[in-house]
Predict the structure of RsmB/NOP family class I SAM-dependent RNA methyltransferase.
Amino acid sequence: MRLHRNLVFATIDALSEIFNEGKYADKVIEKTLKRDKRWGSRDRSFIAETTYDIVRWKRLYAEIAEVKEPFSRQNLFRLFAVWATLRGIKLPDWKQLEETPTRRIKGKFDSLSKIRKYRESIPDWLDETGVKELGEKKWEKEIHALNEQAPVIIRTNTLKTTKEALQKQLADEEIFTRPIKNHPEALVLEERANVFKTQAFKDGFFEVQDASSQLVAHFLDVQPGMRVVDTCAGAGGKTLHLAALMENKGQIVALDIYGNKLKELKRRARRAGAHNIDPRAIDNNKVIKKLKGSADRVLIDAPCSGLGVLSRNPDAKWKLQPEFIETLKQTQSEILEQYSKILKPGGKMVYATCSVLPSENQDQVEKFLNSEAGKDFKKVKDEKILSSETGYDGFYMALLEKSN
Ligand SMILES: C[S@@+](CC[C@H](N)C(=O)[O-])C[C@H]1O[C@@H](n2cnc3c(N)ncnc32)[C@H](O)[C@@H]1O
């Protein structure tokens, strides 16, 4: 691989914003890719993938390069030199990369690889939390899987097309996919590609959604004509799936505390041809009160640490703090207590997170079932999805039923 100066410089600029200014990697990359219209798809994927790689391996690379945050420009080039050296890429003779100690980099990599927190490039607290929650053996495998690059997976919008027709249409645009067993609407890309540019996407024939996440709407066991409340709808990944499973019949009230996320949901719903969604921002305490006892189904896709989706969002390793996870757990308990009231007697509710920590998952459900608010509920089933076992995002979902 030949390194191109303008692409490497753009990567260094992106890393500086992410590491030194605390900006979100996905937003920075999106902005960086708009910088030069002449960049082709290979150039764009070089910038995006290299930036994500260096974000993912920050701790390991910083240790190898012997640099500390905040990173000067020279130190960002050192991190880049580690990235390139470990991939066997020949370094060009630019002054920023002069005197890169190639042999020392390889030697340090070998010795640091013996220690998990360096090998997997994670903060101390995360390694300790993982071991405490999952046990040494499971955590070792899980964090390894969460450091792999996530595949691109799409969900067929069955309001507009079938999986087979979509697969064919994408193949006509040179995007080849295969189905995933037990995930009825999912297609995984054989090779990474910018699917947002396809006509099929513009026409609302699919959404990008991980395979594990695609199981949640099915878990809720919805039927056309039901009244469903999606209490933490965000930009609507699961709301849109629910609308498709309900064949646009019945009603989905989509709630979130952030109105701007619901605006995005509306835009996506228009593209998807989903007409049974009623977005409502939770901007006062009457919003929930009004819905009390009204729903056949309730989805709580709770705010969580996101530790199950680290492969998609590696900078969460550096942005998350243990205190924040504690605050999130408090929010999760409150949400379960409050939003469970929305369900009708005899109705069903799913509590889901994209975390792999039992303390955000089954422990929350048990706590709820043992509380006053949960006394009329029973757990029907739950699923603990580990990335190390499936190759997809880590997820948790529990189906609860309220007695009549
Ligand atoms: C895991 S995300 C939801 C993702 C979304 N369901 C999807 O499938 O795309 C959790 C959402 O909960 C929202 N949230 C946080 N606190 C909340 C609260 N107290 N009540 C309702 N929503 C909340 C966040 O804004 C965020 O959009």
